[in-house]
Amino acid sequence: MEIQIQATVLVPFHFVPGDDPNHPWVTTAASSRALAMVRAAAGDPIQLGIALHAYQDTFSHQGFSGWDEPLNACFPWYSPEAALPNVGHAELRAIPDVTNYVWTDPRDGARIDNRVRAMQAARGTWDHLSEIYAPQMGSSQWASLKPALREIFGMGSYDRRVDGLCRLSGNANADYKEVCERLAPSRGGEFSRAASQHLSRLLETCRDLPWGE
Asked: Contact 3/85 with Cβ under 8 angstroms?
């Protein structure tokens, strides 16, 4: 995979460098850098959405980096999966991203419950959005959402999870593809500018990290 893609797509948008001093490029959950990106984007809904996605990925992608490097390797050289590049969780394919999966990290034997991570990401997202847009909302509203979210994240079907989240949002007929196609002509330029701003801001925070090592 081209290093430009790693530097301008994977690291800033999917594997934000975390707080591990021994492995500064490795993603850690709710890292200080990801939190700073969310705070910096609070004044622009599109930038905020991009920053929140990167923040949410710090939960599912923790322990991996966006670079092609040995620490991302999950299987021995003779395994078929080892033919994939050691970029992010490529060798594990989509396993870390599927909310209902419970799996074992081949690198250290740790048992990972994606349902727990998804709930942590959801709670963090709720806290950020309520702080920005509805600071008067208390913890009782989150408490009322938790059971439904926990049930949805545990569903084995992707389509059922999507339907469940749409219903929970109050818009049972929401269609992500339709929304993208409808908004692209009028908001596509804004999204591109917001993504560029996010990239610039994230790279600026990484100036002190060991590039090329």
From this structure: no
